[in-house]
Design goal:
By secondary structure, the protein is an all-alpha fold. Helices cover 32% and strands 0% of the residues. Bound molecules: flavin-adenine dinucleotide (FAD).
């Protein structure tokens, strides 16, 4: 896996940065400084990264790895907690949702799974 920027992403960033600058100027800014993102990816200038996916949650075992309780469809005593469950990146920071999902899974393990081990969702 690489998080390096491809040519289309560099162009996309240049286009959007110019558009933002136009909007900000039209709003009356006296000075607008533009910084374009360039390849290669450099962790010293851009440090936040939200990696998601890998063992996504869903309602259908043929298109997802875990169910709504983050329980593996294939191995019922395996629960996979983390941003790996997200099928796509959200618009905002992921960590609170990761925590909420961990709480949700832990609650299901205590209140449902331990009483009756096995798949928690029929599909
Ligand atoms: C610089 C930076 C800034 C960020 N800022 C924010 C922010 O402000 N707000 C926000 O919401 N999110 C932020 N994020 C994103 C957030 O940190 C992640 O989305 C979140 O930590 C993902 O949680 P996770 O449990 O999926 O993965 P992780 O927190 O990465 O946990 C995975 C764990 O698995 C362990 N591991 C890996 N391989 C193995 C193995 N083979 N065996 C055993 N253990 C293993 C790792 O050591 C790690 O502890 C930021 C991320 C970065 C990099």
């Amino acid at each position: 896996m690489t998080i390096d920027l491809k040519e289309n992403e560099v162009k996309q960033n240049r286009f959007l940065t110019d558009k933002f600058a136009e909007i900000i100027k039209a709003m009356g800014a006296n000075q607008v400084d533009k910084t374009y993102r360039t390849a290669p990816y450099d962790v010293t200038t851009y440090q936040t990264t939200h990696l998601n996916g890998g063992a996504i949650m869903g309602a259908d075992p043929t298109t997802s790895a875990v169910n709504r309780y983050l329980q593996s469809w294939d191995v019922s005593n395996l629960f996979v907690l983390g941003a790996s469950a997200f099928p796509q990146n959200a618009g905002y920071n992921p960590t609170l949702t990761v925590g909420a999902l961990a709480y949700w899974a832990a609650d299901a393990i205590r209140s449902k799974y331990l009483k009756n081990p096995g798949r928690l969702v029929d599909a």
